[in-house]
Amino acid sequence: MHKTIYLVTDDAKMDFDTLYHKVEMALDGGVKLLQLREKKSSSREFYNNALKMKYLCKKYDIPLIINDRVDIAQAVDADGVHLGQSDLPLTVARKILGPEKIIGISARTVEDAMLAEKNNADYLGVGAVFPTSTKNDAKVISEKVFHDIQAKVSIPIVTIGGITLNNASTLINRGVNCIAVVSAILNQDNPKEAAIYLNNLFK
């Protein structure tokens, strides 16, 4: 997961057809990972939307990660799942999905991060690194905690939370290799241009 833009969707912001169109533009701009997060949808809607996104991701040859729902990830044969601390335990998700699937874990403390690595998580989602309006319960972690996590684990770290076109370079200058964004791409009139801009920051 080297120098990558990771796009996370938000079904609270727009209808699925609009989202699909914006995601396609973002993938065209070089987004390399997509996480489908559906907090409002029924299981049937989530499943149908995940299938559509899977075909889109296949077209661009990038992984589709499902937020929270191991059952949906399994049902559509997605590339992986991203789990929070209150979701199904990583070890259980691994038994269900198998060794080949990507499993990411949200971590806000060094202890969470080390346990996730011990249990063979593929990457960590660490944040929020800035205040964010996308997740109301997201608390900002200190730069010290972030660096402590970096120092203690060797698996890839994805930074998330409040990352915008204006502050992304601050993180990249700190040596961050992967940033996860929502609004920074999906709220733009031209998601492709936003994705290109973020990718260029790594250069």
Automatic annotation (TrEMBL):
2-[(2R,5Z)-2-carboxy-4-methylthiazol-5(2H)-ylidene]ethyl phosphate binds at residues 132-134, 162, 182-183. Its cofactor is Mg(2+). Its EC number is 2.5.1.3. Residues 5-185 form the Thiamine phosphate synthase/TenI domain. InterPro entries: ThiamineP_synth_TenI (IPR022998), TMP_synthase (IPR034291). Keywords: Magnesium, Metal-binding, Thiamine biosynthesis, Transferase. Pathway: Cofactor biosynthesis; thiamine diphosphate biosynthesis; thiamine phosphate from 4-amino-2-methyl-5-diphosphomethylpyrimidine and 4-methyl-5-(2-phosphoethyl)-thiazole: step 1/1. Binds 1 Mg(2+) ion per subunit. One of its GO terms (molecular function) is thiamine-phosphate diphosphorylase activity. 4-amino-2-methyl-5-(diphosphooxymethyl)pyrimidine binds at residues 35-39, 67, 106, 135. It is an enzyme of class 2 (transferase). Mg(2+) binds at residues 68, 87. It catalyses: 2-[(2R,5Z)-2-carboxy-4-methylthiazol-5(2H)-ylidene]ethyl phosphate + 4-amino-2-methyl-5-(diphosphooxymethyl)pyrimidine + 2 H(+) = thiamine phosphate + CO2 + diphosphate; 4-methyl-5-(2-phosphooxyethyl)-thiazole + 4-amino-2-methyl-5-(diphosphooxymethyl)pyrimidine + H(+) = thiamine phosphate + diphosphate; 2-(2-carboxy-4-methylthiazol-5-yl)ethyl phosphate + 4-amino-2-methyl-5-(diphosphooxymethyl)pyrimidine + 2 H(+) = thiamine phosphate + CO2 + diphosphate. Belongs to the thiamine-phosphate synthase family. HAMAP family: TMP_synthase. Condenses 4-methyl-5-(beta-hydroxyethyl)thiazole monophosphate (THZ-P) and 2-methyl-4-amino-5-hydroxymethyl pyrimidine pyrophosphate (HMP-PP) to form thiamine monophosphate (TMP). This is Thiamine-phosphate synthase. It comes from Crassaminicella indica. The gene is thiE.
